[in-house]
User: Which sequence fits this backbone?
């Protein structure tokens, strides 16, 4: 178990001993970790590692065989998690036939967001040319921009994004990373990312997951020391060494 899990009074989120099975398949095995306030934690692993399953277990969308979720030291029931966290799955399509501007306005109203914030997000995500198109008519990249805008309009203190950079080119990914860094004040983020070069640029710490098991957690420097790699080793090298 991660030693940081014991320091629940200083952690925003603590995940303790999560186990999840699908029939005879062990999807998650004794997964434990903690996230500190204002941190961007990268959930790293190949396709099929259990990243999306873990996020859905944290949200309460999937039941677990055992384990505990705590928020600021207190156990967080599945019913109360929607008050604390916003989960943005990959490849969802809410209000697919509605114009982008209609969907953004709806989320602005339910979250009580100032219209200036909507305008700023539209500008930063370069959504102006798409505002009057339905979501299901957009390219993959533009769909992800709209979904990111909806996530950032939410007011939950914990933001969990599944593959937030999927469909973006390098310039767009870097721009979105800058936006996430600017929005981290007062928020904690968990980003599920399979592209390790992108994760290395944006995350403060990394949780390495493979076949449902935690292989390591820490900053890049801490993981380098754990694997005995050189101080300039990339995240990809660290992951390969651990696996």
Assistant:
């Amino acid at each position: 178990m991660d030693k940081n899990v014991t320091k629940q009074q200083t952690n925003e989120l603590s995940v303790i001993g999560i186990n999840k099975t699908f029939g005879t398949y062990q999807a998650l095995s004794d997964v434990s970790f903690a996230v500190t306030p204002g941190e961007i934690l990268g959930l790293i692993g190949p396709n099929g590692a259990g990243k999306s399953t873990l996020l859905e277990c944290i949200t309460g969308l999937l039941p677990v065989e055992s384990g505990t979720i705590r928020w600021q030291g207190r156990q967080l029931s599945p019913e109360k998690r929607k008050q604390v966290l916003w989960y943005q799955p990959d490849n969802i399509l809410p209000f697919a036939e509605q114009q982008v501007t209609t969907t953004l306005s709806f989320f602005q109203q339910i979250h009580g967001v100032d219209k200036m914030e909507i305008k700023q997000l539209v500008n930063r995500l370069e959504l102006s040319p798409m505002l009057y198109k339905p979501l299901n008519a957009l390219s993959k990249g533009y769909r992800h921009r709209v979904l990111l805008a909806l996530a950032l309009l939410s007011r939950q203190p914990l933001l969990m994004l599944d593959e937030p950079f999927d469909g973006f080119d390098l310039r767009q990914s870097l721009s979105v990373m800058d936006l996430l860094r600017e929005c981290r004040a007062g928020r904690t983020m968990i980003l599920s990312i399979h592209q390790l070069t992108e994760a290395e640029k944006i995350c403060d710490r990394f949780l390495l997951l493979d076949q449902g098991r935690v292989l390591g957690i820490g900053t890049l420097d801490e993981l380098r020391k754990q694997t005995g790699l050189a101080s300039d080793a990339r995240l990809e090298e660290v992951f390969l060494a651990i696996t």
About this structure: The radius of gyration is 18 Å. Confidence is low (pLDDT under 50) at residues 1-9. The longest strand covers residues 25-35. Residues 3-242 form a domain with the Rossmann fold fold (CATH 3.40.50.300).
